[in-house]
Design a protein that fits this description.
Layout lengths: L2 H11 L5 H15 L12 H11 L5 H9 L2 H4 L4 H28 L6 H12 L2 H16 L7 H21 L3 H15 L1 H18 L2 H15 L5 E6 L2 H11 L10 E7 L2 H14 L8 E2 L12 E6 L5 E8 H9 L1 H9 L10 H12 L3 H7 L8 E5 L5 E5 L4 H8 L1 H5 L1 E6 L2 E3 L11 E5 L16 H33 L6 H5 L10 H10 L4 H8 L3 H7 L25 E2 L9 E3 L11 E6 L3 E6 L15 E5 L9 E10 L4 H11 L3 E10 L3 E10 L2 H12 L4 E6 L3
Parallel strand pairs: 2-5, 11-15, 12-14
Antiparallel strand pairs: 1-2, 3-4, 4-5, 6-7, 8-9, 8-10, 13-14, 13-15, 16-18, 16-19, 17-18
Helix pairs in contact: 1-2, 2-4, 3-4, 3-8, 4-6, 4-8, 6-8, 7-9, 8-10, 9-10, 10-11, 15-16, 17-18, 21-23, 21-24
The chain binds manganese (II) ion.
Manganese (II) ion (MN) binds next to loops.
Length: 718
């Protein structure tokens, strides 16, 4: 094909096509490929030109044709994405980039067992349907010239990939002609001899029967015309590949395969489809089990037609397909037909390809078919992402999935022990959302266990379930320990020894199966230690009834998450607890006299004091032996302490002034001040204030809240 021929072809169905752009793309690609040649010895440029030519048969828009001309320039020549964007605009650059990405993807896939996932990945990455159409045409031309490759393994691999990836894709988007050609070319490569012998056999039958197809066609036409039905009838032998598939599938020999001829009746409307069916069935005996009404119930891919098998003219078993013209075109050229129809009038009926209908919905709201194609995304797989393992296995995940989801999808064990992830070779946070085509390598460590924080960002059910299970197990261990120590104390307080044996008799009362379970429910706070003691020693009930008001202090209600009980039973003043140990206040929560506090022993560093609700305490949950139950001594309360507050100030003149005035009026002293965020309207800041105790700080906070220039105030936590 020559330059002017291509331009004229496009202009014949799209008079508004940008002739100049096509010409520029033609020259650009020809120059870029220069003296490169194909395996056939042809100049390389003949390939993109053929691909463009294939697409004109489907009457595709100008942008698709230009994309076809340019489709190999980024991958195989010095041309860059930037060049193409500069010369042909953003849209073309994006389309060419899409085709290039798909070509690179091909190189990664050695494994055909994951064909289904791979097909979905191709669809998801195609985004714009035109990318996929160009890719399919590219594959058709490559298959046509496959025989020129010298390496038989390479030929075989490409043919197999065509059969497993591209044939189903072509079928899926309804490109019947592409599908049939790709299938036959792959078949010729993979099973050369089988195909030859089938062709020979078909030829023999053809010669024997004369022009059998022609004769049957003529009679069918006459029969239908006599009954007053306007229609077109065509006939063909089924493809050798589909005959071969049937032979394998049904395990029958070629001789027994009678229905190798198929006839197609195309009529004006759906009513005529059923009329034609009636005429054929009343004239010829039906072959049982061959009747299928895909008009009433379309195939999942949207295919619509009536199929029936009859002992037709000259007593030959034949298959007859009956459909309307529109159904016919859609089944032959799929998406392109929809596009064509949409350019003209609305489709005559509502039931089309299910997923295509979604695309068509977009069309309803687009002002032109071009805009439709431009904005069309292949929505059907947009809610999934496909990622590779380092070995090249494909893992299918929901959109938004993270490396943790990926790790659990690979194996539970990998998920439980994952500590980090490399995405495309770079270390990335575990909460990163994965993208289509990412290669993910999970780093594991035997010492790692699932983190409860993962639950906030994982999206797969499997990951969530595993993390929850682990957290539950861990909680149970904590409740168990806590419950046991509560029971120890409860028994001791009544003057008894705690023995597990003694508890066996009361398990039923608490509806638990074991002593451990009993400890857990006590640890959780469902029952108190006192409940258990009274169950074991019912005689104590009378005594307790008398002294009901003298509440035992063993009604420990577990905090959630449970905190280990301090080693020492009673609160102790800070000073004098462990002589010589330095005491300092935690920078995270800034405890003040009056706060409930707890001490954490840091080996060699003394005791750090936190407020009881400080988040930092979480990290010491596993080491109860480091906890000290502390209280304030009266003399400490005269010292000066630092309280930290978080506030949001209006960004206006004088607001900082009113802050310091209010603090000073309330006998506070600002020690430090730090702006953490600044917007047009507000300052957010951290303010350290010297105060006597928590009540003093609370007063200052209340006073600040009453100040108009201050939007919000609260005590800083971490
Ligand atoms: Mn190509």
């Amino acid at each position: 094909m020559r330059q002017f021929e291509l331009v004229e072809l496009v202009k014949s169905y799209d008079p508004q096509a940008d002739e100049d752009a096509i010409n520029r793309a033609y020259v650009f690609a020809m120059k870029a490929h220069g003296s490169q040649t194909r395996a056939s010895g042809d100049p390389y440029f003949s390939h993109p030109l053929e691909v463009a030519g294939l697409l004109t048969k489907y009457k595709l828009d100008c942008a698709s044709i230009i994309t076809a001309l340019l489709h190999d320039t980024i991958e195989d020549t010095n041309a860059t994405q930037t060049d193409i964007e500069r010369l042909f605009g953003v849209e073309i650059a994006r389309l060419v980039d899409g085709v290039t990405k798909l070509s690179r993807l091909e190189l990664q896939s050695d494994q055909t067992k994951q064909a289904e996932n791979f097909r979905k990945l191709v669809l998801a990455m195609s985004e714009d349907i035109r990318v996929l159409l160009v890719k399919l045409a590219d594959r058709v031309h490559n298959m046509r010239t496959l025989r020129f490759f010298k390496d038989p393994d390479k030929r075989r691999r490409i043919a197999l990939e065509t059969l497993e990836i591209y044939v189903p894709l072509a079928e899926r988007i309804g490109m019947q002609e592409f599908k049939a050609e790709l299938e036959d070319l792959a078949f010729a490569e993979l099973h050369t001899e089988v195909r030859e012998s089938l062709l020979t056999r078909l030829n023999f039958l053809r010669e024997q029967g004369g022009d059998l197809i022609g004769r049957i066609m003529d009679e069918l036409k006459r029969t239908l015309a006599d009954a007053g039905l306007e229609c077109q009838v065509s006939g063909r032998e089924k493809s050798v590949f589909s005959i071969w598939k049937k032979m394998q599938h049904k395990d029958v020999a070629f001789e027994q395969l009678c229905d190798i001829m198929a006839f197609r009746v195309v009529v004006a409307n759906i009513e005529d489809c059923y009329r034609a069916l009636g005429i054929i069935h009343s004239r010829y005996p039906m072959v049982p089990g061959r009747f299928k009404d895909y008009i009433s119930i379309p195939k999942p891919n949207g295919y619509r037609s009536i199929h029936t098998g009859v002992y037709g003219p000259v007593r030959h078993r034949i298959e007859v397909q009956i459909r309307t013209r529109e159904m016919h075109e859609i089944s032959e050229i799929g998406v392109a037909a929809h596009w064509k129809y949409k350019q003209g009038a609305k489709t005559t009926d509502g039931r089309q390809y299910r997923w295509l209908r979604e695309l068509l919905d977009i069309l309803e709201h687009a002002s032109s078919p071009e805009e439709f194609l431009e904005h069309t995304k292949l929505e059907m797989f947009q809610d999934q992402v496909y990622c590779f393992t380092p070995k090249g296995d494909l893992i299918e995940l929901p959109r938004g999935a993270t490396p943790v989801d990926f790790a659990y999808a690979v194996h539970s064990e990998v998920g439980d022990t994952c500590v980090g992830a490399k995405i495309n070779g770079r270390i990335m946070p575990l909460r990163t959302a994965l993208q289509n085509g990412d290669q993910v390598e999970i780093i594991t460590s035997k010492a790692q266990t699932p983190s409860p924080t993962w639950e906030r960002f994982v999206v797969t059910g499997k990951a969530r379930a595993r993390i929850r299970r682990f957290v539950r197990l861990q909680q149970r261990t904590q409740y168990l320990d806590l419950g046991r120590s509560i029971l120890h104390r409860a028994f001791k307080q009544e003057g008894y020894d705690y023995t597990e044996k003694g508890l066996d008799g009361v398990l039923k009362i608490f509806k638990v199966g074991s002593v451990d379970d009993l400890c857990v429910v006590v640890g959780e706070g469902t029952h108190t230690g006192k409940d258990v003691v009274l169950a074991v020693y019912p005689e104590l009930k009378a005594q307790h009834a008398k002294a009901q008001l003298l509440a035992l202090d063993n009604n420990v209600v577990a905090l959630k998450p449970p905190r280990p009980k301090p080693k020492h039973g009673h609160a102790v003043p800070i000073k004098g607890l462990i002589p010589g140990m330095a005491v300092h206040y935690a920078g995270c929560c800034h405890p003040l006299p009056g706060d409930r506090i707890v001490g954490i022993i840091a080996t060699g560093k003394g005791v750090t004091i936190h407020t009881i609700d400080c988040d930092m305490l979480e990290q010491f949950a596993e080491t109860p032996e480091r906890w000290l139950d502390l209280a304030w001594e009266p003399e400490v309360e005269n010292n000066i302490h630092v309280g930290r507050i978080n506030l949001v100030l209006l960004n206006e003149p004088g607001s900082l002034g009113s802050l310091s005035t209010v603090v000073a009026k309330n006998q506070g002293n600002i020690r430090n001040l730090k702006i953490t965020n600044r917007t047009m309207q507000f300052f957010e800041m951290l303010v350290d204030v010297e105060v006597r105790d928590v009540r003093h700080l609370t007063n200052i906070i209340a006073a600040l809240r009453a100040t108009p220039a201050i939007n919000s105030v609260e005590r800083a936590r971490n």
